[in-house]
Predict the structure.
Amino acid sequence: MAEISYRQAVRDAMREEMMRDPRVILMGESITGYGGSYAVTKGLIDEFGPKRVMETPIAEAGIVGFAVGAAMGGLIPVAELMTVNFALLALDQVVNSAAKFHYMFGGQWSVPMVVRTVSGFGQLGPTHSQSFEGWFASVPGLKVVMPATPADAKGLLLAAIRDPDPVIFIEHSLLYSTRGEVPGPALGDGEVPIGQAKVVREGSDVTLVGYSRMLLQALHAAEVLEREDGISCEVVDLRTLRPLDYPTVVNSVRRTHRLVLCGEDWRTGGFGASLLSEMQDRCFDDLDAPIQRVAMRDIPLPYSRELERLLIPSSEDIVTAVRRLS
Amino acid sequence: MRADGTGTSPAVPAGAPGGALMGGARTVLGLGREDRREHLRGLPSGLAIRLYSAMTHLRAFDERAVILQRQGVIGTYPTYFGEEAVQAASVLALEDRDWLFPTYRQTAVVTLRDCPSVVPLLLWRGHPGGWHDVMRYRVAPICIPVATNYPHAVGAAWGARLRHEGWVALAYGGDGSTSAGDFHEACNLAAVVQAPVIFLVTNNQWAISTPIVKQTRVPRLAEKAAAYGMPGVRVDSFDVFACYEVIQEAAERARRGGGPTLVEAVGYRLGPHGTADEPSVYRDPRADLLWAPMEPLGRTEAAVVEAGVAAPEQLLELRSRAFQELRDVGDRLGELPLPSVEELADSVHRDTPWPLRPERLYEPSWARLEQTPPWS
Ligand SMILES: Cc1ncc(C[n+]2csc(CCOP(=O)(O)OP(=O)(O)O)c2C)c(N)n1
Ligand SMILES: [Mg+2]
């Protein structure tokens, strides 16, 4: 086991897969000089050269459309969109091309590509601090992955690149510097299958479901609740939002009978909203209390650090939600 | 470093000032000494001083903003050091009724329309006091998603045309923005309908760490205009007098019904992309040295004094006044209280409709809505 950063884990996955599979190419804005907006691809240009690490003009729709075509042309493109906010400019290519071609043409060929992008906040202002995983996760034909730890970041990106379908891989800007153990070569390459959630903390009183940064917030809340209230929280990391591993969540709720869904996206129409409806279908008789959601209020995130702190869902909000249940 | 200019080692200087890169760019400051003096003396009375004063103000704003960012009073800030000439010219060459469509790099242009400096500084503090009065100053809200402001300007200009109001719209952007689909769509649309609009593209050769050669095979961006069927003009972005002329000509053409113009203000990004950037990671600091003499404020000052249009003391006085004003504004900035989250919630919609009330007040899922809908 080696301890590395989340950023390094993402980079390692790309690097190792590029060495293994010559079809894999990277593309994106400022990904050579600066290594992308969060320096994730830094140094890869030196190793693989400009044909495989392609710096693109500022053209999000073009980048994703190019990737769709490149996938048909026999490559496996990993396209970086600087942040998920700029994915808005590429939505048609994601939803109407990448996600549809396999289905619309009788499964003759698929579109093996990855769109790597970044959610997060931190004084980025209303247009640059949004979370759209719920939108992507609502699109049949896409797979949507949001890792919380370095090991999952690496393992899931390997799986995403090897996957025959288009995968939206959403990193989190505030996780890049977090560190964690990642399996070394002795344990294989550490691929983590898409579509498997993970119980990361066992507990008996309530199930907290999170992903990406909110998973860490849920873990923190679980510690606080254990210490201050004697409440035992089970924490589930979804890791993949589509296809979603319902059995793992359902099994947990069967034991704890209480459920809190933790997300960073907007309350209305956020990912937690559809998860909630599905969970109440599947677990209504197991639940002792209404399912709680921790989500962003329906307000665009302001630029001010102080106001941002007041709005962004945190571990305190999770603690409050759990206390409401007891 | 590879032959095609890629690599993580800093890129070699992309052309020296005055060389091929600036080829075909209109200049006044680059004229011979006699011609330059003649030119400045021939300007309408007071114009040179007004341009200098506007540039000074922009510089004082920019320097103060960087200091405030370092002090933690404001957030990440995109400095425009070196773009004072083209920005000042863009406002002064237009009439006050003409509309401006800025990006993140032109947040201070509104202050040249007499909006107090504290307003855009508050924007970078994330304070609602930073939302300038859009209709009063006729300066649109800034667009940070690259190139998304171009179509707005075209639409606004079309409004002016349909209502025979005689004003024009000017949209700002950078070299990188010309790669974006919105730029193409806006240029095409503007030319098709002959909208009275000016696309002012400041080609500073860099888009964060992407050099212009990786952005386009047509590094003379003005040439792109031909493909849309509109005039394209190159001008030295460091030359406030040349920028003024070019933009004024474009505005006159638009006003006469002559349609859009693409103005390429060419130069170099003298500073970093923003306060969070470190250019030495991706470009050779020697290039910065090559371009440093093009710094516009000093050049303008030298030319104005040389032409005898203003005395050095007068310029010094203008400068110290601008810097003092910004120092005072900056000192008071941190004291203003921030609004509450409820106030933010109230500004999401013009009229917050009943079904959207949850955005105002969080309700736990089991709480019965006690309130009755207003229509019951
Ligand atoms: C649609 C979109 N994609 C990416 C970004 C990230 N980004 C911010 S500024 C910038 C570079 C813009 O370069 P240019 O147009 O040359 O303007 P400059 O910053 O040099 O003034 C990029 C890529 C963005 N803001 N919007
Ligand atoms: Mg630029």
The pocket of magnesium ion (ligand 2) is lined by residues B 174-176, 204, 206-207, 269 (CB under 6 Å). DSSP finds twelve helices and 14 strands in chain A. The mean pLDDT of chain A is 96. Residues 198-325 of chain A form a domain with the Rossmann fold fold (CATH 3.40.50.920).
